[in-house]
Amino acid sequence: MEIHKYEKVWLAGALLLIVGLIATVSYGAVGAGIEMVGDEGGQVDPASLDEHPKFGEPGTYQTGEDEYDVYVIAQQFSFEPGTSEPIRVPADSTVTLHVTSADVIHGFEVVGTNANTMAVPGQVATITIEVDEPGEYGLLCNEYCGSAHHAMEGSLEVVPQSEWNESMVVN
Ligand SMILES: [Cu+2]
Question: Cα of 16 to ligand 1 centre, how many Å?
Answer without folding.
Answer: 40
